[in-house]
Write a structure and sequence with these properties.
Distance between the termini: 25 Å
Order of helices and strands: HHEEEEEEEEEEHHHEEHHH
Strand content: 15-25%
Radius of gyration: 26 Å
Number of strands: 12
Bound molecules: dinuclear copper ion
Structural class: alpha+beta
Strand order of the largest sheet: 3-2-1-5-8
Largest sheet: 5 strands, mixed
Length: 366
Amino acid sequence: MESNSWVPLFPEQASSFAWQVDYLYFYLILVSVVFSIPIVVGVFYFLIRYRERERYATPDAIHGSIVLETAWSIIPFIVSMSIFLGGAIVYYNQYRVPTDPDMEVYVVGKQWMWKVQHETGQREINELHVPVGRTIKLTMTTEDVLHDFSIPAFRTKTDIVPGRYTYLWFQPTKPGKYHLFCAEYCGLNHSGMGGYVYVMDEQDFDNWISGNASGGTPVEQGRDLFETKLGCASCHAGGPQQRGAKLEGIYGHEVKLVGGQTVVANDDYIRNSILNPSSQVVEGFQPIMPTFKGQVTEEQLVALVAYIKSLSGITGTAGPGGGAATTGNASTGQTTGQSNSMTPPKADRGASNTQGSNPNAPANRR
Ligand code: CUA
C-alpha cells in the first residue's frame, strides 16, 4: 500500500488535501529546476566565452536595457507570488479547523506514546481508528514536552505544546493503515513514538466502535470529576450560595474579568482557569478558588473541558473559533467564539449511519 501514490517513494495520498500539498511541492521543485539549470549552464558558458585572452583588456561598456530589466523584475515577481498564493491556500485549507466536524477525538502526547480518546469514550494507545470520508478534528495536548502529531499519508502535522490545546483536522479518503509519527524530537525514544491510523469503511468503523468497551465518555468522566472527585460543584453549582463563576452557557462567549478585560471562554480559557484560577478572575467573584495544578492529568483536564462545554449545549464538537489560530499562535485566546455557540448538539455518533447521509459531509470542504 505504501507505493500506491502517483509518485514513487511517496506515501499514499489518503486525505482530502494531500494532493494539494503534493502539487505545491512539485511546483516548487519545478521552479527550482527551471531556474537552476540555466544558471549552471550560463556559468559554464560565460566561463569559456569570456575567459582571459589578453592581459588587462578593456571590456566594452554595457548600457542598460529596459526590456531585460523589466523582464527580470516581473517574471520573478509573478513566480514568487504564485508560490505565496499556493502556500497560503494549502495552509488555509489545512489549519482552518472545521467548526462542525463529524467526529472529534482527544489526543494526549506523553514520552513516549499517544493516548487517544473518542467522544464516545473508547480509548486507544498509539492507534487511531476513524471512518473514511468524514471530517475528523483532533484536540491535542501533552503531559510533558513538545511533540508533533504527524500523518504523512494525510500530508498534515501539528505541534503539540505543553500548557495549551492545538488542533488538527483531516478527511481521510481511502480505507487503509497509515503510519503515525511524532515529528518533533522529544527525548530518547522519540523515534519509537509512533503508531498507525486505521481508516475504515463506515460499517467496519461502527462495528469497531461498538465492539470496544467505553469507560464513559469524556463528558461523563468530566462530570464525575466535577461533581464528585474534585468537588468543583460545591462552588460552581447554581443557586443562591454559588461562590464560583457560572459555567452554564459560557462556552464560546465573552467573559468579563476583574480589571475590565474580557476573554472568550474557549478550551484554553477553561483549562487555564482550572490550573491558574487567580490569573483570570471573573468579574463579581473573589479569587478564592484553589489551583488544581498537579492534581489533575491532561486527560482529566480534557474531560473537564468537554464537560464544561457540554453545559453550553456543545457536545465536544466546537472548535477553536474557526479561526486560523490552531497551530499554537498567540491568538488562541482571542478568536471569536461566535460560530461555536451556533453549533447545534450533535446526534449520537456510533450509531450505524449509512455513508452519505451526513448533511455536513465532505465535498465542498476543500
Ligand atoms: Cu514525541 Cu518526538
